[in-house]
Amino acid sequence: MLEMREITKLFPGVKALDNVNFKVKQGEIHALCGENGAGKSTLMKVLSGVYPYGSYEGEIYFAQEQCQFKDINESESLGIVIIHQELALIPYLSIAENIFLGNERANKGIINWNETIRQTKNYLDIVGLKEAPETLISNIGVGKQQLVEIAKAISKKVKLLILDEPTAALNEDDSENLLKLLLSFKEQGMTSIIISHKLNEINKVADSITILRDGQTIETLHKETIKITEERIISGMVGRDLENRYPTREANLGDVIFEVKNWNVYHPLHADRKVVDNVDFYIKRGEIVGIAGLMGAGRTELAMSVFGKSYGNKISGQLYKDGKELKINNVSDAIKAGIAYVTENRKENGLLLQESVTKNISLASLEKLSKKGVVNQYKEMIEAKVYCQKLQIKTPSIFQLTGHLSGGNQQKVVLSKWIFAEPDILLLDEPTRGIDVGAKYEIYTIINELASQGKGVCIISSELLEVLGMCDRIYAMSEGKMMGEVMKEEATEERVMGYMTRTNEKERE
Amino acid sequence: MPEKQKENEEYNELSFFKIISKYLRQYSMFFFLVLIMVIFQVLTNGILLRPLNVTNIILQNSHILILAIGMLIIIVLGHIDLSVGSVAAFTGAIAAILMINNAINPFLATLLCLLIGALIGAWQGFWVAYVKVPAFIVTLAGMLIFRGLTIVVLEGRTIASFPPIFRSLSSGFIPDIFNGSQVHLLTLIVGVFLSLIGIGIMIHIRKKKQAYGFMVESTAILAFKILGLIGALVGFCYILSMHEGIPNILIILSLLIFSYHFVTNHMKVGRYIYAIGGNIKAAQLSGIKTKGVTFWAFVNMGVLAALSGLIFSARLNASTAAAGNLFELDAIAACFIGGASAYGGVGKVMGAIIGGLVMAIINNGMSLLGIGVDWQQAIKGLVLLMAVAFDIYNKNKAS
Residue B108 to residues A70, B89, B98, B215: CA-CA distances in angstroms? Predict the structure, then answer.
C-alpha cells in the first residue's frame, strides 16, 4: 500500500535519514521503533508532506502512485493522516468543533450545526467515546482527547492512520482501550502506522515492526514469520543485546531518613475533594522506594504537596527527617531541608527552555554560588561543566539553550539541577518519561549512584516494570490512599497491579 | 575518541563565521543605532553630533530611558505597565504642590515623591502578584486613576516655576572647577578617569577568568576593546566638553544603567527575574518566591516612574495635567526595539537603552531635518514594527 524508497533527508550538519526503505502492507498495523533521534518522526514528516517534495531524496508510492506532496493538505486529501504526540486540539472549543476544524460542515461559509453534531455523534460512536459533541475539550481527559483526535482523522476519510506515541500520556486502562480500538479498525481494513516506545504494546498489536537506528533501516520483522520478543526489538534498536534493562545494585540500607505521617491534601479548586487521603510512608537511607499507581491516583499530588506545599489546599500531616519534625511552608524551606522534587513534566515545570544549560543547573542552588546576592558566574560555569561530564549530558556547550536538547539530555539537566542542590531526599516523578532505552539506562545508573551515597530516593512511575526493576520497596496508591506495600523480593506485576486497582473492586462489591 | 576530535574540528572551522554572525545577531540593534547615527549625521550635514545637539538629546530623553529600565524588568517578568506616564504626571504634580505651593525643601519633596511612586508601585504590584489580576488591566486602571488624580491635584491648572536647585536636576551641568576657557576640563578628566576604571574592570575580569581556568580572548582583541572603550568614552566626553560639560542628569542616568545592568546580569535577583519570565512554574518549583519578586518589580517601576516625572517637571519647570502622555508607549517600544520578548524571559537593560536611543536619534534627526511630528510618529511606529519583525526573523533563522 505504501512504499518509501531510499529516502534521504539532510539537515544542516546531520543526516537525519539515510537511504531508508519502508513498506507497509494494506490492512496491517505497522510499528516503527527506534531510539529518540533515530529518525522516526522525520520519516513520518517526509511522508505527510511536512517536509515538502524536493527537500529530501527518494520516492514515495502510495496505492501504486508516486506522490510528491507539497504540504500536509495534499497528503491528507489522499487519506494519510498523522496524529502527533502533542495533541493538536483547541481546549476551549467543543469536540464537534475540533473534529471539523478546517473541514467545517458549512454551506457558503455558514456552519450547519445540525449536520456537524449528527456526524460528530457518528464518529464518536465509531471510536467508542461516550461524550456529548458539545463538550469542551478542556473538560475531558487526555485519553478521551486522543480518541477525539482519532475521530477527527476518521472524518477526513483516513486510509493510512499514523500515530506518534499515542499512549505516552495515557494510563494503562486508556492505553488498553486505544490499542483495542486500533485492532478493531484493522479488522475493518484500515492500515495504521504506530510509533511507540512502549515495546509491550507494540508487541501486542503490531503485525510488522520496522526498526530504525541512526537514520537507517535496520530491519523489518514480520509476526507471521518469526516470533518477536521485546528483547529482540531492543537489540535491534540499540544495536547490541541489552541483557538487563536495569543496572544491578547492592542495596545498603540505613536508618529511616524521611517519613510522612497522616498526610492529607485537598484539591486546590474543588475544596471538598480529598486528593491525598491519610497517607503514611517512609524512606531509609540508601533505599529506592517506588510509588506505583494509575493516573489520577494522587502520586504527583502527594509528592508536590510534600515538596513545600506546591500543590493543593488544606494540607495537613507531619514530615520527619532523621526523626525530627520538619516545618515546611514553601519550596525554599523544602530545599533547605534537603528535599528535591524532579517534576514529571520537565518542559512545563522543570526547565527554562530559553536559558542555557548552565543557568538551569544552578537555578535551585544560587544561594550556594552567591556572595551578598552576587552570583559567581565562573564557579557556576565550572559546576555546570562538572555535571555535564558526570551525567554525560550531550550538548555542544554549557551555553546551549536547554530547549534545543533532546528529551534524555533535558532530563539529565533537570537531574543535575537537583543533585547540585545536594538534597538528602529525592522525589523523582516519572524520571524516564519520553526518553529512549539507552538514556533510561544511564538515568537508572545515576539514581542507583545517588542511593549508594546514602540518600533516600523515591520513584514515582507509571511504568510498572520500571518500579519493579529499580525499587527496594514498592507502595501502591489508588484514589489518594496507600493501598499496599511490597518488598522487592515479593513484588510481581500482578500483585502490585492488584493493590493499584483495589479501591475500585471494593466499590463494586 | 577520534570521532570526537573530528567533531571538535568541524566546530572550530565553523566557529569564525559563527562568531561573526552571532555577534551581528546579538548586537544587531547596536549596529542599527550606529547606522542611523551615521545616516542622520550625513543628512543633517553634521548637526546631529554637534556638542549642543548631543547635550540636547541627553536632556530630552533621559526620562524615557529611566522608564525603559524599569519597564524592561516588568516585561521580562512577562507583564506590562501602561500606567507609568500617568504616574510620572501625578508625582510631578505632587512635586509642584509641595515645592511651589507649600515651599517644602526640594530634597525632602523629591524624597516624598519617590516614596509616593513606591506606594503606587506597591498598590499595582499587590493586584498583579497576589490577586493575579493581569498587569495589563491593573495598569490600564492605574493609567486612568493617576491621570485623573493628577488633574484633581492640579485643579486643572499648570503650576510653574520650581526652585532653581530642583531645576538643576535636569538642566544643570557639573561645575568646571578647573575653569577651562574653551573646553570643560573637568568633563574631559572624568572621561579619562572612567576609561581607566573601565580598563581596570576589563583586566580584573580577565584575571579572574584565568584564575578559574577559562579561555580568555587574545591580547590583540583585548587591546582593540580597550582602544574602543577609550575612544568612545573620551570622544563622547570631548563632545560634551565643547558645550557645557556633563549634564547632571547624565550622571544619574549612567548610575542607574550601570546598577540595573549589574543587578539583572550578575545578581541572584536578576536570575529570579529571568527565571520567572521564562517559566514561572519551574521557578516556583526551584524555590523562587515568584510573588515577592513580581511585587518588588512593580514597586521599583513606581519609583522610577516617579523619578522620571520629577525629571520631566524639572526640565519643563512646570507641572501640567498633560505631562507624561504616551511615556508608557515610548518606554515599552524602547524595550521591544531593544530585543525584549513580548512573551517574557528575554531582554536586557542595555538593549532597552539602545532601543530608547534608536527612537531618540530618529526623533531628533527628523526634527533637525524639519520633518513634522505627524510623520515622526508614523516613522517611529514603522521602526518599532520592523525592529521586532527583524528580531523574530533572526531568531527563527538561528533555530
Answer: 71, 19, 9, 51
3-class secondary-structure state, position A103: coil
Our CA-based measurement puts residue A356 at a distance from the nearest CA of chain B, in whole angstroms, of 11
Cell numbers for A328: 515546611
A396-447 residue pLDDT tens: 889 888 988 888 889 999 999 999 999 999 999 999 887 777 788 889 999 9
Taking CB atoms and an 8 Å cutoff, what residues of chain B touch A367? 268
CB contact under 8 A, A343 and B285: yes
Q: Respond yes or no on whether ipTM tops 0.90.
A: no
Cβ neighbours of B209 in A, within 8 Å: 378
Q: Which residues of A touch B208 (CB under 8 A)?
A: 378
Are B267 and A370 within 8 A, CB to CB?
yes
CA distance A336 to chain B (A): 9
Indicate the average pLDDT of chain A. Answer: 88
**What is the CA B179 to chain-centroid distance, rounded?**
32
Minimum-distance CB partner of A366 among B268, B278, B279: B268
Domains and CATH numbers, chain A: 2-238 (3.40.50.300), 256-338+424-508 (3.40.50.300), 351-422 (no CATH)
**C-alpha cell of residue B96:** 509642584
At what angle are helices B327-337 and B84-96 packed, to 10 degrees?
130
Show the cell assigned to B166.
530642583
Task: Report CB contact under 8 Å: B214, A351.
Answer: no
The grid coordinates listed for B230 are: 577609550
CB A411 within 8 A of CB A357: no
Tell me the residue type at B257. Answer: I
> Rounded to an integer, what distance in angstroms lies between the CA atom of residue B383 and that of residue B337?
8
User: What pLDDT, in 10s, does the model give residues A310-334?
Assistant: 888 889 999 999 999 999 999 999 9
Q: Do A379 and B268 touch (CB under 8 A)?
A: no
CA distance A24 to chain B (A): 34
Please tell me what DSSP assigns to residue A324. E
Please provide the average confidence, as pLDDT, over all residues in chain B.
89
Residue A199's pLDDT is 79
Strands A324-326 and A313-321: antiparallel
Question: How far is residue A246's CA from residue A243's CA, in Å, rounded to a whole number?
Answer: 9
Nearest CA in chain A to B11: A396
What SS3 class is residue B279? coil
Closest CA to B94 of B164, B166, B144: B166
State pTM to two decimals.
0.81
Residue A501 · residue A296 · CB < 8 Å:
no
| Contact: A417, B283; criterion CB under 8 Å | no
Question: Among positive and negative, which fits the CA dihedral A331, A332, A336, A338?
Answer: positive
Residues of B in contact with A352 (CB under 8 A): 274-275, 278-279, 282-283, 345
Residue A503: pLDDT over 60: no
What three-state secondary structure class fits A233? helix
> Cα separation of A414 and A164, whole Å?
25
What is the per-residue pLDDT for B17? 64
Residue with C-alpha cell 506546591?
A310
Q: Verify whether the Cβ–Cβ distance B286 to A343 is below 8 Å.
A: no
Report CA-CA distances (Å) from A99 to A79, A122, A134, A411, B48: 16, 12, 11, 34, 61
> What tens digit of pLDDT does each residue of B205-255 get?
889 888 888 888 788 888 888 999 999 999 999 999 988 899 999 999 999
Q: Taking CA B397 as the corner, what is the angle to CA B392 and CA B399, rounded to the nearest 5 degrees?
A: 100
Residue A130 in grid coordinates: 461516550
Pairwise CA distance, residues A427 & B52, whole Å: 65
Contact B278 A354 (CB under 8 A): yes
